[in-house]
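Handout, page 2. Input:
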Amino acid sequence: MANINRTPSNEEQKFKQIENDSWSGIYLPAICAGVVMTIVLFMAVSCSKKSDTTTKISAPVAPATQSPAPTTASAAVPEMPKKAVKKHRPTTATYVNGNYGVALTYPRKYSLQSGDKLKQLPLQTGFSRSGAVEIASLDMPDGLYPETDFSSALLNVSVHQRLSEDECGQFATQSNDAAITKSTEADRSTKSADSLKPSAIKLGANQFTEIEQMSGSGDRQSDLKYFHLFKNSACYEFALDVETSRKTDEDLAQVDRSKIFKQLEKILTTARIKEVELPGIENAERAKAPEPAAIAQPVPNGTQTEKAQVVTPEPK
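Output:
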């Protein structure tokens, strides 16, 4: 019976069945293993890319750990040496005389001469009587008015203790040693009669009695303004002098005297006279002992001052 069922078709079927079973048994596991390996490799590659991306993103965070370094550098900046501050020399100075209570502020470029160092030929005062004490003199620098007949200009300070208040308002008539030239007479003629009489004027905090006088010869002339003030039972005088000179062969322009007087009067506006007990007349005439050191007074325009020069009055 078994032999009867073996036919060619059945044999072919069995062969195909065996062949199919052999292929499934041999190749299917290999295919499955390949698929698994492919998946594993794909996952490994994906994880590798993610780790690379994470590494790339986190890389910039590394400098944050070095942030203390700039702080240390910035902390070292204040330790650098500071530049020296350039100090400007004050343009003004203050003169103080404690014996007579006089103080005034003047430009440093002016030359100050105290009472014991005044020139041998002091400026003639405008007091009606002799006996004054010359305290100080301020000289304007030379060369301020080139190509003009300007010679010199100064502000002179004197005190007279033998004059009453009425006498302080009077002035001596200046006399010329040399003949007055026609040019001087012409200058005088241009002034009104009232200008040759004393007049009241206020400069700064002080009320003065003022008079203007001219003297000199043709080649050298002096224009003087006297300012008197009675205080501390004495007569204080501030004399402003502008001198011009020229030679006959010189072609020089005439300097503007009013402009120079304005500069001197600006100094006069800073004059301050304190109430003090003046030295006796005998002591004033021979006051040779130095004063205690004076303290510089503040300058009205806000600049710094130097120590005031102490003066020793000397009889005129």
